[in-house]
Amino acid sequence: MRDAGPGAAATLSSLLTPAGRLVRNGEPVGETDMVRRSPDTRTSSQKVGSKASEGVSCTSPEPAQATTQRLDHTTTPRMAENVTKRASLEQGRGAFSFAPSPARASRRPAMAQTLSILIPVFNEARTVRKLLDRVSQVTFIGGVKTQLVVVNDCSTDGTDAEVRAFIAASPGLDVVYRQHAKNQGKGAALHTALDAFTGDFAVVQDADLEYDPNEINVLLKPVLDGHADVVYGSRFIGAHPHRVLYFWHTVGNRVLTTLSNAFTNLNLTDMETCYKLWKRDVIKQVAPHLKEKRFGFEPEVTARVAKLDGVRIYEVGISYFGRSYDEGKKINWKDGVSAVRCIVKYGLGR
Predict the structure, then answer these.
(1) Sign of torsion, CA 238 241 247 250?
(2) Which of 25, 42, 173, 210 has its CA 20 to 30 A from that of 274?
(3) Mean pLDDT, range 45-54, rounded to an integer
(4) 53: pLDDT confidence band, cut at 50, 70 and 90?
(5) CA–CA dist 329, 249 (Å, integer)
C-alpha cells in the first residue's frame, strides 16, 4: 500500500465540520448525499495515476500511517472512524498477549469413574480364584476403573485362603474384603457389600463362573451413554450362548418374573438374574431398607428400585454358563416359594 502522507489527514480534516459532519463546497452533506457518489471531476492524468496506485502489490508490512486511506467526498463519518481505529490497531500490533482465559486454564480432565463389583462368596474354593483373575483382567469401556468388594459368607472349604492369595498377588488392585462370622445367605453378603462399596456404579458378580465378567461392559454401556440408571442382564434374550439345563427351573424363573412384573409394572424377562447394575445414587437409596438375607434379595431389590421416581431401568442380553447341582448349584424349590412371598410382600408394601 502506498504512503498516504500527511495530505490524507489534511483532506480528512477539511471535509469534517466540528460536529463530525462532512461538508462539500462549504455546505454540510445530507444523509442522502453521503451515500450517493458525485461525478468524478479529476483530470485524465489524475485518473491514470490513481489506477497505477491501485495496482501496487503489498509484499511486506508498512508503517502504521500507511493504513490511512485516501478520503474523498463520498466518505461517511463511520468510514472515517473505522480508518482511525484501524490505524491505531496497526500501530499497536504485536503488543497484545493472548494468555488462556482463567476459565479455560482452570479446566482439568474429568476424574475416571469407578465400577464396584460386588462378589458374595460361600464355599467357592474351586472357582473363586479363577473368577477374581478374570474380573481383574477385564478392560472396562469409557476408562472406568474397578473396585472388587468380596464378602466371604463364612465359607468352610478354603475360600478364604484363595481370596487372600489373590489379594497378595494383586497389590495394585482396589480390593475390599469382608468376612461374616457365621453363614447368613447371599442377600446378607450383598448387604455387607453394598455398605462397603465406594464406586460410581455397582454390579453383582457371582463367584461360580456362571456369568462372564467381560459382559459387564454390555450392562455398563447404556449407563455411560446416559440412557439408564439400572441395567439387568437377561439370560433369556439376545444371541449369546446359554447352557441347556433344567426345564422346571426355566419355568419357575419365568413365573417369578411375570409375577414380579405384575406388582412392579415392569416388563423384565429375567428378574432373578445375578447381573444387576445400579448407579450409586440409586442403590444407596434402597440399600438401607433391604431385609432379605437369602435369594429373596432379587425380588426385594427389584420391587424397591421400581418404586423410585424417575429411575430408568434397561435390560440387555447376556450369556449363561449354568451349573448343575453336582457342580455346586445351591438354589432350590424352597427359595422359589420364598421368592413368591417376597414379590407379594414388597410389591404391595413400602
Answers:
(1) negative
(2) 173
(3) 46
(4) very low
(5) 12
Greater confidence, 244 or 209?
209
Distances in Å between the alpha carbon of 278 and those of 228, 311, 317? 9, 10, 16
Residue 190 has pLDDT above 70, yes or no: yes
pLDDT digits 0-9 by tens, 135-171: 999 999 999 999 999 999 999 999 999 999 999 999 9
Q: Residue 12 is inside which H or E element, if any?
A: helix 5-15
Pairing of strands 175-179, 201-204: unpaired
User: Taking Cα atoms as reference points, which of 258, 289, 290, 286 lies closest to residue 271?
Assistant: 258
Does this model's pTM top 0.70? My answer is no
Q: Using DSSP, state whether 281 is helix, strand or coil.
A: helix
Element spanning 179, H or E: strand 175-179
Question: Measured between alpha carbons, how far is 207 from 131 in angstroms, rounded to an integer?
Answer: 6
Q: How many Å apart are CA 154 and CA 142, to the nearest integer?
A: 36
Under 8 Å between Cβ of 118 and 205:
yes
Give 197's contacts (C-beta < 8 A, 6+ positions apart). Answer: 116, 118, 147, 149, 176
C-alpha cell belonging to residue 41: 471531476
CA distances from 106 to 97, 98, 102, 286 (A): 18, 16, 6, 37
